[in-house]
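Q: How would the structure tokens look for this protein?
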Amino acid sequence: MSPSRRASWSRSDLTPLLAPRSIAVVGASESPDSWAPEIERSLRHVGFEGDLYPINPKYDRVWERRCLPSIAELPRGVDLVVFVVPARVVVRMIDECGARGVRGIMVVSSGFAEAGEEGVELQAQLREAALRTRIPVLGPNVEGFVNYVDLAAPYGTTPPPEPLPGTISVISQSGTVAWAMSQTASDRGVGLRIVLGVGNEAVLGLGDMFEWAAGDPTTRVVTSYIETMRDVEGIGRGLDALRTAGKPVLICAPEGRSEAARRSIVAHTGALAGNTTLRDAWLRAHGAILVEDPVTMFEAALLLSKVRKLRATGIAAALQSGGACTLFAEAAGAARPVKVPFGTEAGLFAARGIPSVVCGPGDMTVAHRPDEYVERAELERCADFLRRLVARAVAA
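A: Here is the predicted structure in token form.
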């Protein structure tokens, strides 16, 4: 997003878009080749109870609802209009949305800046129309979002089973990475606040979404996948807002070291990969925590959603095997040159009344012969000791 003619969006400006109670889908159909049916399924999947208006002049009924022929037929003040029609058609319809008092727009359609010179011009026209009508636009070339708390999911892929509300907000330049985070959360029974892709950031960018999350009372932690810094000033403003709000932000940002990686970034986001060393230093200076991959990002977000401040800098682990302990120790050593205090004698546990346990470097393997069973009381005493150990090491 070009920083010229920067728009300022308040939280109240973005609420209709991100927590809509009425949604229109332009290009609605039941064709399996369209994104539209998946968006409708996603809305049903999360239990969306607001008004839904399919729009397509080709049909009288879609999704067992009356299908409107045009935006002009919408009631005034619809919260969100979702576009799944060709790029040129989208640009022509923005003013129609303004005339009907539409409060937010999401453009799923591709064919904009990621598609070459003609697409760059169309994206510029889209931005100009959005600023002219004062309508916040998410996208284009965006898969959508899932708002787990307000039960709204205009999303191009059906969310994982039983989505749970939570306090982690996922804000990403990659829809696939965002979806993978939501899948992991579902598999682990972890709740999320919102999963959101920003697409090409023609109007709304990462910085705007960071500022929204900073003011959102439900969000405690933000995670983000970044390939390029389209609006450095806006991202800095958003990161500063998160830091002021005391909300950690975890960022996974590929280095783009190879030519193939740089080409992939350009093809995906329609932007050039810059100097990642300077970028990473700048992100850290604004309070971001950089992580290597989405798996690490998820685990760190889960920890920070429950615990904010550690009383000590040491690391302790209770793992189920010696091999797992070795891998943990190697990873801890690679992360920083810190001595990890491990108990190495079974007597350390025995002194605390926990029998039958071998204590290698954090190894909790029971020291019985394979044909013997562990008494339930022994395991319960071991678990109680670990709970007390963690309670002393971690701030409430």
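The longest strand covers residues 165-172.

The longest helix spans residues 376-393.

Upvote if useful.
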